[in-house]
Amino acid sequence: MDIAKKIAEKGEEALVIAETQTKGKGRLGRFWYSPKGGIWMSLVIKPTFSLKEAYLLTYVAALATALAIERVAGIRVYLKWPNDIIYKENDEEKKLAGILLEVKAEIDKINYAIIGIGINVNNEISSFVPEAISLKEILKKELKRKDIIKELIKNFKDLLEMESIKILNLWKDKSLTLGRKVKIIHPEGEKIGFALNISDDGALLLKTEDTKILKIYSGDCIHLRFSF
């Protein structure tokens, strides 16, 4: 994202693609393994909507990525709150792609947004990161990464034209998180409960074991065994 940030600070929009990343980052600054063969890209945009709607960018990017993978690879994928694309086979869930959003804003104005997207395509990943998988490992063949990128950008533009309620409903239709018992890890501690819904302002609605309904705006989500 370093190059993307320099471009964003100049007030420009761009698509930045890397063959590999030596400083790839995931959520909370974690290292993101980014070898040759994957798609490691950053979209630099200047959104026209308000800061309170910035949350939509993560949902839009996740949907655009999932739909692109499905169209090009011909497989079914799902979404895990807040920003993961998951491949599911039987009861096993493996991470196929992830989203990282960075926004610079002033009061209620977004100066720019950088949307980092990482997709495991033709790289070998499962032996290094057991909870992840690549399209090559699923399909036993390589795909043209440019086809996925082209479809992803098209989807992203189309989704940005939609109303927020439509975007959230599309995300919910592909969600693996809603209706599940989950553990949420965030700066204030851990919360366990049932993922009920996504609120109109993008929060995960969590029903805790003492029946309280919490609005969770960020954090790591772990799917637990039992469904709601």
UniProtKB/TrEMBL annotation:
InterPro entries given in the database record: aa-tRNA-synth_II/BPL/LPL, Biotin_CoA_COase_ligase, BPL_C, BPL_LPL_catalytic, Transcriptional_repressor_C
Broad enzyme group: ligase
Coiled coil: none
Keyword annotations of the record: ATP-binding, Biotin, Ligase, Nucleotide-binding
Annotated Pfam families: BPL_C (PF02237), BPL_LplA_LipB (PF03099)
GO molecular function: ATP binding; biotin--[biotin carboxyl-carrier protein] ligase activity
GO cellular component: cytoplasm
Keyword set includes Flavoprotein: no
Catalytic reaction annotation: biotin + L-lysyl-[protein] + ATP = N(6)-biotinyl-L-lysyl-[protein] + AMP + diphosphate + H(+)
EC number: 6.3.4.15
The BPL/LPL catalytic domain, residue ranges: 1-164
Annotated PANTHER family: BIOTIN PROTEIN LIGASE, BIOTIN--PROTEIN LIGASE
NCBIfam families per record: birA_ligase
Full protein name: biotin--[biotin carboxyl-carrier protein] ligase
Source species taxonomy: Bacteria, Pseudomonadati, Thermodesulfobacteriota, Thermodesulfobacteria, Thermodesulfobacteriales
